[in-house]
Amino acid sequence: MPAPASRYPDMHARSIRDPEGFWREAARAIDWMSEGERVFDAALGIYGRWFPGWTTNVCHNAVDRHVEAGRGPQPAIFYDSPVAGARRTVTYAELKDEVSLLAGLLRDLGVGKGDRVVIYMPMIPEAMFAMLACARIGAVHSVVFGGFAAAELAGRIDDAQPKVVLSASCGIEPSRVVSYKPLLDLALTLATHKPQACLVFQRPQAEATLTPGRDHDWATRREQARAAAMRAECVPVEATDPLYILYTSGTTGKPKGVVRDSGGYMVALRWSMAGLYDTRPGEVYWSASDIGWVVGHSYIVYAPLLAGCTTVLYEGKPVGTPDSGAFWRVIEDYKVAVLFTAPTALRAIKKEDPEGRLMADYDRSSLRTLFLAGERADPDTVEWAKARLGVPVVDHWWQTETGWAIAGNPVGLGALPIRVGSTGVPMPGYQVDILDEGGHPTVPDRMGSIAIKLPLPPGCLPTLWRQDERFRDSYLMDFPGYYKTADAGFTDATGQLFIMGRTDDIINVAGHRLSTGGMEEVLAAHPDVAECAVIGIHDALKGEVPCGFVVLKAGVARSPADIEAEIVALVRERIGPVAAFRLAITVNRLPKTRSGKILRGTMKKIADAQAWNMPATIDDPAVLDEIAIALNARGLAKSSAA
């Protein structure tokens, strides 16, 4: 029996033709304290604002209403920490108890509606309590990835100007304990702005020294709040009020704080849980990310709880905690229905267990769909996962700025045919165009800059925190009437979108514009390659030439030189001599951010002997030295960190 036709084409067309009607209907899934006359007002803000005059509360929608509807005994959070040897189940009723207590404590520390709170914490339930407690009293949270360098944390404190900082004594990596408090103390010394108080959660792996008069012990103050019945109820906030500020990774100079509003964000996330991810209330949804990133904000914390699902909070790695079967163990233990992770996590698993033997040790029958985002999903990795997991593998694409998917395969509307290498089709509200250098839409299969016609749909950033002009200059000036994504790619004749990399990953080889992403697809297809990265390096004759870095799969015993020669031949065969691809370099690992993005820009600066700064979000700085050594062995890379 043929599958029913997807509802996507009609739904997307309606969202573009009648956006107010479409999003008014979607807003029925949210509890509102009052509704305004308009769904969108083009005269407000920089490009318009969604749900002006509507009032709501995000914490009520994520927690209280589920308790009121009888979901109190249902698990809201499965906390699983192989690095700490800890597990915890938090029901919706328990979540409401913890969050209302912490919200009352924050209020006692002087935090009110519109005040900012910086959250500098590891992947523990208290970090989620902190975010929801801020939302409960209308405070604006700004989560900074735990373990971030002191100078970077100080810059964010100065920009957000929080009244209170919530932190923990340490984070835990597979091989070490990272003490957070010394980093926080140094950041507060460096920062011009001084918060009124710090609330510190003591973990048994490392005890923090508290500064009298400023620092408070989390557990002690929590018990005091409980004894005094110091609970806070949900306060009404405007739909256009900010819920949080999230600073984009790898920024230089003044931090760039993405603002997320309250109402439109909830509407978009709630729609996506059903329409895109096909997840129903009561099911277990696992986003294997970190709350310090946008994926963690949207799909560990807010979206699953808004949908009445159970979310998995995993403090571990895809490999090494303890092995490459970690993900499959979590799926079995918690009956995960939908998994969302980064392609780099799958590549790490594939490198250690290329045949997927450890998968057989676990019951994965609950898993219905695997979603990928965060890095380009090379076809080889997608096919590897699909063949071994036996479920659809859906790539999709979005940004910190958008807060939810720009493009994907809307499984909940009836899945479209999956084209490996494509990130799917635009989600409701997104009119995505491929523009040439003159800002004109291109024909199918023609590479160009990916841009989104204004207005952006609900959930996307309305501006940057206290930097309206920077928002205009960074995103809206290059292509008038559009939001510039800074990604490059093309659409095919069916409207499927292909992301080929950042616009600065399109290299110019002797006048030919070539995608490093396209070359990476070829490298990844080699049977011995686990993961790869291609950058353009300076060449006096051709302007730029590509250089490919490859990490081999575990157990490969062949000569790296032989494999490199095969890779060069493979690119020549599949892309042609025009690519001028002659340099492949085998390395043990690639430099990445903590969220899994490969630091291609820094690699390029090293190769071009340019001064470079250590990226604030890098997972292991030693990898860049390894890259420099590998390049030096080929007569390249004489630069050093600035």
UniProtKB/TrEMBL annotation:
A GO MF term: propionate-CoA ligase activity
Gene3D superfamilies noted in UniProt: 3.30.300.30, N-terminal domain of ligase-like (3.40.50.12780)
Every AMP-binding enzyme C-terminal domain range: 519-597
GO cellular component terms attached to this protein's record: intracellular organelle lumen
Domain Acetyl-coenzyme A synthetase N-terminal: 8-62
AMP-dependent synthetase/ligase domain span: 75-453
Recorded superkingdom: Bacteria
Family (UniProt): Belongs to the ATP-dependent AMP-binding enzyme family.
Record's protein name: Propionyl-CoA synthetase
Origin species: Ancylobacter aquaticus
